[in-house]
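Changelog note: in this version the structure field was regenerated for every chain. One regenerated record is shown below for reference.
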Amino acid sequence: MEYIITEQQLNNWKRNNAILEFINDKLIPYDGFKSPYDDNEPEYFFSLVGMPDFNDYDHMWWVSCNNYDTNTSMDCPFLVLPRGVYGSLDAYFGEDSWQPMVKEWFEGHTSLQVNDIGTF
């Protein structure tokens, strides 16, 4: 059996691998992913590895919006990324390329649904 791989497929594969490498480098929680997560919880904070200083902006924040007053236009539940990581992903790959992959990656590690991704 012969397979033909187009240049477009190869470029998509390379881009997807670059995105996965970037998010695995920048978005792995300091304590690793814990299991199981409960989507009835209003929020979870994930402190990140590799940030220059551990401060308020060195984490991902997942919000279910259950019993939680959010003043945002994002669709619940949502994931909030550090501004630097979000901006780098946009600049390197474009929003349409990386957001679906980050959602799938995060949901795969936590089993928590993500409808939207934003920054703080």
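Spot check on this record: The chain is about 40% helix and 15% strand. Helices lie at 7-26, 83-93, 95-110.
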